[in-house]
Amino acid sequence: MNLPESYIPILIQAGVAIGFVAVSLLGAHFLGPKQKKGNSVKNQSWECGVPVEGNARTPFSIKYFLTAVLFVLFDIEIVFFYPYAVNFREFGMEGFLAVLTFVAIFFMAFFYVWKRGALDWDK
Q1: Would you say residue 11 lies in a domain?
Q2: Which residues cross the membrane (predicted)?
C-alpha cells in the first residue's frame, strides 16, 4: 500500500491521539481507586454535612438546556462584534452594512425563538 507522503503526518497524529486515549483509559482502570460494592456509608452521597434531599438523577427540563444553548449562541454573537468595534472606521460603510446584516439575522433568530416560546420558563 503506497500512501502519499502528505498522509504520513496525519497518520502519526491519529496514532498518537488513539494511543493517548488508550493509555489514559487503561491507566485510569488499573491505577485508579477501586470501588467497593455494597451500600456503605462511605459510598453514599453527601454535601457539606447536609442531609440528601431527593435523587441526584432527577431529569432537568429541556427548557434549561435550550436556554443554555441560546445563551451561548447569543453570547458568541458579541465576540463577532469586537473586531468591528475596534476597526469600525477602517471598515467604512461596507463594514457597517455587513454588521447590520449580521445583526438582522440574529434578531430574526431571536424573534423566532421568542415567538416559539423557548424563553418562557413557565410553560
Answers
A1: no
A2: 6-32, 64-84, 96-114
